[in-house]
Amino acid sequence: MANNIPRYPPTYRQNEIHLIMGAARQGQSLCLMGIAGIGKSNITNFLRYALYQDQQQYLVHDPYKFLFPVIEGNAWDQKLQGLWGAMLAELDEIARDLPHPPPIDPQILQLSEDQRAFSLLRARLQWLTQNYQIMFILDDFDKVLQTAPLSLLEQLSTLRNAGNRDKLSYLIFTKKLPAVLGRGHPLQNNSKFYDLFKDAVYALEPYNREDAQQMLTFLNENAGKPLGTQDLILIREKLSGGHAGLAKIIFDSWCRTRPDPEDLVIFFAKKTAVSNECQRIYRGLHADEQEVALRLVRNQPKAEDQAIIVQLIRRGLLLDQATGEWFSPLFVEFLRSYAVEGGKYHG
Amino acid sequence: MDDPVFIFGFVVVILLLVLLLLRIRVRVVPEEERLIIYRLGRFSRVAGPGPVLILQRIETVVRTIRVRDEPVSYVTQGLFIYDIPFGFTLNFWRSFDLQNTVNDRETLAKLAQFDDNEREQMITTKIREALVHCLTAAQQRRPLAPAATVIERLLPVVPGFPECDNILAGVRQELAQTLPSIGVLLNSVHPITITRLHLNQDLIAGFTRNRTAELLRQKFPNLPEDAMIQVITSIEGANPLSVSRFSVNDSPNHNIRPEIRVGSGGAEGRIRITPVQEETKAPEGPVQPMTKSNTTQKEPDERLSKGDLSLLKRVPRYIPGQQRSA
Predict the structure, then answer these.
(1) How far, CA to CA in Å, does B49 sit from each of B32, B53, B63, B68, B101?
(2) Is A290 on the interface with B (CB under 8 A)?
(3) B128: distance to nearest CA of chain A, Å?
(4) Of the candidates A14, A147, A311, which has its C-beta nearest B318's C-beta?
(5) Running along chain B, 326 residues long, what does each successive block of 10 average in pLDDT?
(6) Which whole-number Å values give the CA distances from A194 to A29, A37, A157, A181, B76, in the listed order?
(7) Plot region of B192 (φ>0 → left; ψ -120 to 50 → alpha; else → beta)
(8) Is the pTM here over 0.95, yes or no?
């Protein structure tokens, strides 16, 4: 049976999407920082594939035309031409139906492969930005910011020039703060690329109620409605806390084995897939955040933890400091097990 | 009328009149110069050295040629050897000698129309022709292996290599034949030498990169290739005043890691490579059982500073109907 439920609701991530669209419209770059499984890829897929299909509301009366090519930072092979080649291939893919630019003058001889790839990319961008606002989505860019040579990052900023400055921008997804990831360079003092988004680093919080509900309803519809409405609400409200990765894992697990309704949290906390996901979330946190999180679940916060507690709240992970409420009780259970067992967790 | 004195006086007067009429002038031409003289607008002769009579009413010195035998350097860019672009600066002795290189007056009249600068341009063209011929012949003599490196491609034009000497010999032979046609004599005593091999900056950067990689491989034989690329590109693209450290894991047990620092100039500003004990760090990769030791310890420069904690913002709430910018 065909699924009549759209994957994304009309108001899907509307705060984030409007922020991104506003930036893309003006050629401004920004960074969204979110924990593992928070739904970064869903935003990418939405911008890349769904924006022009279902979500006309974002584009109504918009004089601009947008392209959102996606580059996977984890797939970067640590070679310059690898990144330029990937960007070029993605542009070709996304703009395959658009008119092609004139070929580069063959008299201009580029000796190195990366130089050739970079020249081709720049020419292609010059061509496309005549008619389109292009926002490169640099997904999972932690590794690149951390290990790529500064020269590579700077070349990303040189792709923007006087002709396309207000038309080409970047949306960077990371798990950690870019300034911390790029401290070895250091990005903060040396990088024009970092300057592009240094004042626009935003926390990507878990889904709100509507987005989480839509996602679960979509999954349920696809699976032939094995779960009732109340079950979905329980997943949304009592277990996943709007975390896309946890919601999907819990849904799949629930479909396989119906849990004891009286002991939902303990039931799912013991699931290997859930604990692995919590572990991914935990490891995606900064070490300082990890320490403070553990002290919070032990009820032993220090006075100097306050700034990091504020950061955890800003990230949408800690909901209420006074009550110790986190986005998901499963994550609290994970932290508690880890803290109680004296530093060893057997998921 | 038969008085010899009268006759002599008459002749002198006539001569004076002729001299006055033609405005004859004597010009002393030094040994290293020649004069190109036109009479009534047509080439007359190449004159000099020594005293030269010029009938100023009908003759004009249109230009002076320097005929000194002297060494000159000529730059020839845009050459190719096995598809690699390069250039040469060649140095050899030559002289402009119209009288001894050309036999017929018609050719001499043609060559006399050019000044020294124009003749230099002709020499540059002749050198390019000779180089192109000889490089083509050299490439035909020595077919390239399919997987030849850039260095192997360039070897025939590197001074000192036998193939390069062959190319120069060919160039000399061709120039000896062609330069006289433009009024230039190639000195056969002095050799033609390559004073400079011009290579593209990318090629030079590539050689430097390989040399750096070789040095690093000697120091750290276990350094993975991808880490090597990172280090080299960091060094190339980094501002030595600001890039402070690049570290990579160098052993399967992560016990030792090389630390590469780029200093801030002067004698201490060179790249230093120092093996140091690795600090424990949370591992990346597949999910594993965790212990405190691999999750809570961190490098000092990875601590969150007050400045770091002020960077992150919440996404602004969208109010319907509001056009928001970043």
Answers:
(1) 8, 12, 14, 12, 17
(2) yes
(3) 19
(4) A14
(5) 86 87 88 93 93 90 92 91 90 91 89 91 93 92 81 87 91 94 92 88 76 78 71 58 43 42 40 40 39 41 78 86 50
(6) 10, 25, 9, 11, 44
(7) beta
(8) no
